[in-house]
Design goal:
One of its GO terms (biological process) is fatty acid beta-oxidation. InterPro entries: ClpP/crotonase-like_dom_sf (IPR029045), Enoyl-CoA_hyd/isom_CS (IPR018376), Enoyl-CoA_hydra/iso (IPR001753), Enoyl-CoA_hydra_C (IPR014748). Keywords: Lyase. Belongs to the enoyl-CoA hydratase/isomerase family. The structure is a single chain. By secondary structure, the protein is an alpha/beta fold. The chain has two domains: 199 residues, 2-enoyl-CoA Hydratase, Chain A, domain 1, CATH 3.90.226.10; 50 residues. 40% of the residues lie in helices and 14% in strands. The strands form two sheets. It has a six-stranded mixed sheet with strand order 1-2-3-5-7-10, sandwiched between helices. Strand 1 and strand 2 form a beta hairpin. The longest helix is centred in the first third of the chain and has 16 residues. The protein is globular.
């Protein structure tokens, strides 16, 4: 059992945390964070986050946003967690977006720096995040999915940015991500009409990676996650960061600067960078350590 490094308080006494094994410290942190609007499960290096307000189709309000901010902060900071899968509770909805009834009743509205669900403004996470869309993904719910790196959708999934129908606009990233992902004219056709799009049409438009039978979205997303986890997590993070940063500049600049990106430099300095070629030459599966 590996103990945490000794730490001292101002009086020179050992702190309680310093005397607690690392894995117990982690469990204590998880218990300290009582989840009311979401559920978190870990399967090896994969974190499964379930939006859990089924009584309102997993629509989110302020308290849920701040809870999810902490959930994804913890995922981003945990070196043992390499991939996240986001889904919704129940079999009807992924997320119906902003809880309009809560807002209409005078409930405060807002979220932390990570944006809607702690995800839509989270630009510093280089770990892959997969949306397992198991039903309705409306407004902010669709914006959560668009903020993910992959979208796996059940046949009963429905996507839309219907904010104009209630006097709002999709300002949690939808107005900017959708045109970048499917092209201007197609995005305009969805946004200006506020129309609903099926999973099959989403696949044809290009924002859905795979359509699966109803009830199979999470299993399919986990299959994708497990396939990704066979690759070096350092290489995956470097690839995601290079893609994201490269899209914001010219092709020439992206290629010229990519080796200076932090995740690319971390990959080149990692144990995985040595392990990959070594395992290939020895004709064995690599043993990734993620550092």
């Amino acid at each position: 059992m590996q103990a945490a490094p000794a730490q001292f308080d101002g009086a020179g006494a050992l702190t309680r945390a310093s005397m607690t094994p690392i894995f117990l410290q982690k469990k204590m942190r998880e218990r300290a964070m009582e989840l009311k609007f979401s559920k978190v499960e870990r399967k090896g290096p994969i974190t499964i986050v379930t939006l859990s307000r089924p009584e309102v189709y997993n629509a989110l309000h302020t308290d849920a946003h701040f809870e999810l901010q902490k959930v994804f902060d913890d995922f981003s900071a945990d070196p043992e967690q390499w991939i996240a899968v986001v889904t919704g509770s129940g079999d009807k909805a992924f997320c119906a977006g902003n809880d309009l009834k809560w807002q209409a009743a005078g409930g405060k509205r807002g979220w932390d720096k990570g944006g809607f669900a702690g995800l839509t403004s989270r630009f510093d996470c280089d770990k892959p995040i997969i949306a397992a869309v198991n039903g309705v993904a409306m407004g902010g719910g669709f914006e959560i999915a668009l903020a993910c790196d992959l979208i796996i959708a059940a046949e009963n999934a429905t996507f839309a940015l219907p904010e104009p129908r209630v006097g709002l606009a999709a300002l949690a990233g939808g107005l900017h991500r959708l045109p970048r992902q499917i092209g201007l004219k197609r995005a305009m056709g969805m946004i200006l009409t506020a129309r609903h799009v099926s999973a099959r049409e989403g696949f044809e438009l290009g924002f859905v990676n795979e359509v699966v039978p109803q009830g199979e979205a999470l299993n399919a997303a986990l299959r994708w996650a497990e396939t990704i986890s066979k690759n070096s997590p350092m290489s995956i993070r470097a690839s995601k960061q290079a893609i994201q940063r490269g899209l914001g500049v010219s092709l020439e600049q992206a290629i010229a600067e990519q080796r200076d990106y932090p995740a690319v430099q971390a990959m080149a300095a990692s144990q995985d960078y040595i392990e990959g070629p070594k395992a290939f030459s020895e004709k064995r599966p690599p043993k990734w350590v993620g550092k």
